[in-house]
Amino acid sequence: MKRRDFFRTSLLASSGVLFVDSFLGCVHPAIREGDLDQLFKGFQEPPASSRVFVRWWWNGNRLDADEILRELEVMKEAGIGGVEINPIAFPGYEDPMGYESLTIFTEPWLDMLEVALKGAKERGIICDMIVGSGWPFGGEFLKKEEQSQMVTIETIDLEGKALHHFSVEELLNRIDPEIHSKNDKVYRDLLMMRLLPARSDDFVEGEDLMPRISGDELSFTTPDGHWVLYYVAKLTGYMAVINGSPGAAGPVLNHYSAEATEAYLNRISDFITGKIGDMGSYIRAMFCDSMELEGANWNDDLLEEFEARRGYSLRPYFPFVLKKVGHMGNPLDEEYGTRFSEEVVQMLKRVELDFYRTRIELFRERFIETFNQWCHKNNVLSRMQAYGRGMHPLEASMAIDIPECETWLFKEVGREYPNTGPRGRAPLMCNKYVASGALLAGKKVVSCEEITNTSMAFMATLENIKVAGDQSNLSGVNHSILHGYNYSPLDVPFPGWIRYGTYFNERNTWWPYFRLWSDYKARISYLLQNASPRANVAILQPLTDLWLKEGPQRDPFPQKRYPEYQHNLWEVIHQNGGGCDYVSESIIRSSEMQNGSMNYGDRSYEVLLLPEIETLDAGTAMALKDFAATGGRVVFIGKQANKSAAYLEMDEEDAKVRTIVEDMIGQSEGRVFVYPAPGADLITWYGELQKKLGLEPFVRFSEPSIHLNQCSYQVGGHPLYFIANHSLSEEISVRADFRVDSRLIPWQWDPESGEKYPCVTTGSNNNLEIHLPRAASMLIVFEEEQETEEEVRKSELFSGGGSVLSGPWMLQLKHVNGEEFEQSLAELANLADTDWGLHFAGTVIYEKTIQMEGELPHFIDLGDVQGVTEVFLNGTFLGTRWYGAQRFDVGSAAKKGENLLSIKLTTITGNYLKGLKDHKVAQRWTSHQDYYPVGILGPVSIL
Predict the structure, then answer these.
(1) Shared-domain flag, residues 279 and 324
(2) Where do runs of H (alpha helix) occur along 311-394?
(3) Phi-psi region of 854 (alpha: psi -120 to 50; beta: other; left: phi over 0)
(4) Rounded to an integer, what distance in angstroms lies between the CA atom of residue 34 and that of residue 370?
(5) Which class for 498: exposed (0-12), middle (13-18), buried (19 or more C-beta within 10 A)?
(6) Is the pTM of this model over 0.90?
(7) Same domain assignment for residues 663 and 725
(8) Beta-carbon neighbour count of residue 695 at 10 Å?
(9) How many CB atoms lie under 10 A from the CB of residue 169?
(10) From 524's CA, which of 118, 198, 645, 919 has a CA 20 to 30 Å away?
């Protein structure tokens, strides 16, 4: 069976369950055939499955039935379509207010779960549920053999000829990795002890010192010279569940044991089904959060599994493929142990890679597949963040019903965007891996833990959130799980119980406007869930080279990147109007090569990019040669592959790869070549490569920009484009030439209003002038020609001009703490620069009388605004703006003579909380943050 077929069939083979189509993101047949009327109906009124979900933190399980139902009502009213029930430890710095903490899976807790599940179902809210509590999951009840295991090393440098005595207990206690989440009780077992020279040009196993142990004492003599004592220890139960709630805290589960995993999961389903019956009647999916296993790498049969899978024994090399471990399981970046020659070091790296690949296989088979089978047996879907050290960042997601990634909100998002690296990017690199894996596996839904926020929780505006969310969609996401909604009774003092995340809460100042964004997001998600992303370029991520050079990384926050621009390559392809997926070597080997295309399932690629790849499996190289022979194009960026990663018969395998690649380049008639690595300007670099390849983008922008990005989709025969300006300051104006049938008519579908209207074209139907103010976006759908009474709308940029309104301004302020007062401003300014405005949070009404004569204005533009605004002119409501250009159509509201302009502005809460110096919750989240600008900064103009 080909790997492609395995990924498609293995997950559902054990279950005859038929899942609800909308949960799986299955496309309505009429939509699949291109019925845009049917699609538009869903766009106008998106189903719950397309609406934002929230991670619903049950803080410390301090639960009350009435409060659960009240919060469900609040979320329903806000346009939230689903919840992920997430029991979690109570924030230690907050007051429990006398609410009792319930132990998870006890009868009182199960009563509350039943209230939530039934209450959600009655309200049309979809429920997911985290497996257990915290991450990675575990519990106080786990037996020793069910707890997570890590093998690691310690070394001691020894000098000269001497007799040495060590206590084994003392040696084992020295192995105490500085991981993030330590468990109280750790079992330590000595597995191996060897003596080696401090330097060696050749590989040596060293002297086995285990026979020198008597009782608890190790005694041995070193010869003259410099020596290193290596010893390998197994730590069991070393890690505690991160933020586990009562009853699900304590040691983490051993994810490399199918037996332990199955027992753990069955325990949970027994509790739940015993209370509510069939889990699938109330729960859509069970969820696994981040796989931050802090160095877990072991099960007691791993040496045997290694030999069976790799064809040789790991034992001679065992101490040298292990690392000393630090925070979050990251290897310590320091030198220790024997200094081998470079040739030996490279050989050991191949063994270490085989060790890692063995763990990837075991994790998939024993945890992911066990988790899937358990979910399907219980009539629910699997949802998981299937990446991290120990998982293939792309292929692991292919095995999950609803694969999930992460989009974070940092202060830099929308403000900075350097050419390379993660800064300024809300989506993490795992997003594109997960999205690619989902598409390759034929899945329609790509889930995301979205707007994850630990650095500016109370400082975030809806505009910040929109920019981060737009970037998330551009990375391939179409299903948002917000981070998050904190369970917090109303009698808890402001701001309530806060475990994590952006302050999605009805007590937030801007909550009355939240539905504007949630409706916008739901409509985009609905379209993207029901359309097929287009891609003609595949990228082979240089994982093998990264692992060989730098070791396995902790996704989504890798310590090292190779090459530096590798995580930014997909961006410049899309910024230049194209589309791409990431692939793996196994995907390439399983693809069908024909007529110049590499085909895997429904995905098809004309071009394959290999960024600075030096190492390939010989089978992968042969598949690339076959691709090129059919007319496909292969681009080695910066370097040409010249070796394999094989340990067995490495010289022969290396020679095979070199020969295949050289033959491929020589026989391809220019379709395979080495292209220089990019410099500082990635967009121009890829634009030139795209031109050299003769590769037509899906849309060609007259001036590509780092702030302008797009993704192209297909619905039947209708192209669909999502285009976004993700800058909080830059306005963008470009001409866009779309690669579509010129007989099709471009329509703009407005995700804010649910309306649509034809676009203004420039000469032909596939040529548009696109104007995007800051933080703005647009959806363009190409439809058949049809008669319409809809008004053609033309977007315009207003960069200055008109008459600027000077001061003074009268202000009426209503603080969230209940205070009300008035102020005046001689000129518009940042309110945080004033004594009375520095710690203000709430609403401000700006008023000014304007004298109008002659031609009456068409628009009022507020300029730079930090907050949400509602504008009234002479008592006539002109509209609400929560992001982007603060521009309002005056309509017929203006009159000659005196006009009263009234602007209601709603601020963030963060500056107020930062000023509460004795408030533990406030200081926990804001003490490390700067004050953020607040108010109408202007200039305000009439146009």
Answers:
(1) no
(2) 342-363, 369-377
(3) left
(4) 38
(5) buried
(6) yes
(7) no
(8) 17
(9) 12
(10) 118
Nearest to 513 by CA among 549, 473, 560, 465: 465
Domain stop point among 649, 679, 709: 679
Tokens standing for residue 317: 């090399």
pLDDT digits (tens, 9 = 90+) for 262-315: 999 999 999 999 999 999 999 999 999 989 999 999 999 999 999 999 999 999
Map residue 550 onto helix, strand or coil. helix
Give yes or no for a cis peptide into 808 (omega within 30° of 0): yes
Q: Is the C-alpha dihedral spanning 31, 34, 35, 40 positive or negative?
A: positive
Pull the structure tokens for residue 230.
């290596």
**Would you state the structure tokens that stand for residue 29, as one six-digit string?**
């047949």
Tokens found for residue 321? 């493929």
For the beta carbon of residue 883, count every other beta carbon within 10 angstroms: 25
CA 880 to chain CA centroid, nearest Å: 30
pLDDT tens readout for residues 883-898: 999 999 999 999 999 9
DSSP 603: E
In a domain, 692, yes or no: no
> CA triplet 443, 445, 447: central angle to 5 degrees?
130
> The domain containing residue 916 runs over which residues?
803-942
Closest CA to 230 of 326, 155, 302, 127: 155
Contact (CB, 8 A) for 398 and 440 = yes
> Which residues are registered as beta bridge partners of 200?
340
Contacts 24+ apart (CB under 8 A), 559-562: 559/330, 559/333, 561/421, 562/612
Backbone φ and ψ for 114, nearest 5 degrees, come out as: -65, -40
Residue whose structure tokens are 């109370």: 458
Token representation of residue 535: 């891609």
Q: In the sheet where 149-159 sits, what is the strand order?
A: 149-159, 226-236, 187-197, 207-208
The full DSSP string for 668-737 is: STTSEEEEPPP-S-HHHHHHHHHHHHTPPPSEEESS--TTEEEEEEEETTEEEEEEEE--SS--EEEEEE
Q: In what order do the strands lie in the sheet with 592-594?
A: 592-594, 597-600, 603-605
Residue 850 CB neighbours (<10 A): 18
Q: Is residue 180 part of a domain?
A: yes
Domain assignment present for residue 768? The answer is yes
Cβ neighbors of 248 (< 8 A, separation 6 or more) are: 87, 104, 105, 132, 133, 134, 137, 138, 139, 140, 241
Pairing status of strand 285-288 against strand 126-130:
parallel
Do 234 and 342 fall within a single domain? yes
Residues 454-464 have a mean pLDDT of: 95
Q: Cα separation of 336 and 845, whole Å?
A: 65
Asked whether residue 694 is assigned to any structural domain, the reply reads no
The pLDDT tens digits for 656-704 are: 999 999 999 999 999 999 999 999 999 999 999 999 999 999 999 999 9
d(CA 438, CA 432): 10
Neighbouring CB atoms inside 10 A of 375's CB total 29
Counting the structural domains of the chain, the total is: 5
One-letter amino acid at 232 equals: V
Banded pLDDT at 785 (limits 50, 70, 90) = confident
The secondary structure of residue 327, as a DSSP letter, is G
Q: DSSP characters for 491-549?
A: TSPTT----SSS--STTSTTGGGHHHHHHHHHHHHHHHHTSEE---EEEE--HHHHHHH
Is the Cβ–Cβ distance between 630 and 667 less than 8 Å?
no
Question: CATH code at 763?
Answer: 2.60.40.1180
For residues 52 and 179, membership in a common domain is answered with no
180 shares its domain with 324 = yes
Do both 184 and 287 map to the same domain?
no
β-bridge mates for residue 152, sequence order: 233
Q: Same domain, yes or no, for 778 and 819?
A: no
Q: Tokens for 936? A: 């109408």
The domain boundary, picked from 679, 714, 740, lies at: 679
DSSP reduced 3-state for 648: coil
- As a whole number of angstroms, the distance between CA 593 and CA 825 comes to 69
One domain, residues 408 and 440: yes
867 residue type, one letter:
G
